[in-house]
Design goal:
By secondary structure, this protein is α/β, with parallel strands linked by helices. It is built from 15 helices and eight strands. The strands form two sheets. It has a six-stranded mixed beta sheet with strand order 1-3-4-5-2-6, with helices on both faces.
Amino acid sequence: MFPPHYPISSEDAQQQMDDLLKLCATNLTERASQGILQHAFERDQDVEHIMTALASPLKGRIVVTGGARVGKTAVIHEVAYRLHTENCPESLKGSLLWGLSARSILRAFGIRDWQEKLGLLLQLWIKRPDVILYVDALPSTLMAGATAEDPFDMAQVLLGQLQSSDNRILAEGRTSAVAGFLDAYPEYKHILLEERVPEPKVEQSKRIISQFADAILASQQVQVDELAIHTAIDLTRRFSLNESLPGKAIDLIEETVALHAEQIGHDSRVQAGEVIDRFGDKTGLPRMLLTDDEPYNEQIVRTYFSERVLGQDQAVEVIVQALSLLRTRLNNPKRPMGVFLFIGPTGVGKTELARALSRYLFASDELIVRFNMADYTQDWHTSIPVSYTH
């Protein structure tokens, strides 16, 4: 059921909308004026594309997509800075960018009242062409607010308003999530123009992160060594494969700087070793794989496994060679670090070899997750029970 329409007088429409926005949204243009949003370094082309599309009377509805930590939010924050300084197309001057999300709407209005309050907000929005709504994590509006009694979700409410107005909107989401969202609501394909933020090349990422490090120096008086930047990029490229540059390296540097400032204080320098230590603590990976400074002797490694798994020289050699490839970085970084299939009768050492590998890499065999496939021989063993909560 669609939210009811309300008679709205022109004299209080602006105040009503401002009150609703303050409850469920953030004025990003105002935050830009305070200098507390992040800048998007080396992203001028992406920002220009979005500004031009927003200003176009034929477009004006943009969804920014890209991989995790690729810089989508930073680009949108840069749009807010451009609006604040009026470094934008003429038709966008004086515009305000308000950011909201499915979570912020439910938190502000509650599961019972969100349809009514959001419906009113969107009706008031028609009278406010100066307001650009930014929907963070657009795919999360799918099924948001829906219940067993009322399956109507936020995506449908927003869709209905966009189909009946010309207001500008800016949305964001990961590429794969947005693709799934558009499959669920194909009507959005005719409304939203996709602007993809690509992962920058390594050299461009290094320039972005260097500028970020300069900003840290200016604000926190902590200098990030150039080798520390290179190390953060190298480690995250090799091991953090589910995220993108530059964000994943920036996150690692931010965490290292925070620990450094807490332990040593400001007016100091973050070194590469601290980045390695932080990444090791965060991932559990051994320093042997993270830095060439850590000694590695293939014969000692072979002896380590041979003493723990007797009489399995061929299997031990496979493990040792895989570790050596990781050490020398000859492995494919887009594939798992190691996939092994140990075959043999009970008691020959298959499980013990897996435990020995875990102990060597992580100093513990508690990180092994063991599935006994004999427990999954029937179809019903793998069926997923479905329950509904009212």
